[in-house]
């Protein structure tokens, strides 16, 4: 999946995909949702991630699901 808000850089967390401009793995957002967190709770815990980054990540993920799973 190509993302405008998630990057993989070998110099940051050993190449773990992170939100651009942060050291916050994208997986953390999914883990928080699995734990019952809201977007606001995630943003409070990870203030270097912007609301727009979260919303863009969700939109890109939704679009990927719509094209990746055949009818």
From TrEMBL:
Alphabetical list of InterPro entries matching this protein: DUF433 (IPR007367), Homeodomain-like_sf (IPR009057), WH-like_DNA-bd_sf (IPR036388)
A Pfam family it matches: DUF433
Gene3D superfamilies: Winged helix-like DNA-binding domain superfamily/Winged helix DNA-binding domain (1.10.10.10)
Protein name per its UniProtKB record: DUF433 domain-containing protein
Organism: Verrucomicrobia subdivision 6 bacterium BACL9 MAG-120507-bin52
Classification lineage: Bacteria, Pseudomonadati, Verrucomicrobiota, Verrucomicrobiia, Verrucomicrobiales
């Amino acid at each position: 999946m190509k993302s405008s808000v998630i990057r993989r850089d070998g110099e940051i967390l050993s190449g773990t995909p992170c939100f651009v401009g942060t050291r916050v793995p994208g997986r953390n957002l999914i883990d928080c949702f699995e734990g019952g967190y809201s977007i606001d709770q995630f943003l409070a815990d990870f203030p270097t991630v912007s609301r727009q980054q979260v919303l863009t990540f969700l939109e890109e993920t939704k679009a990927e699901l719509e094209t990746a799973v055949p009818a």
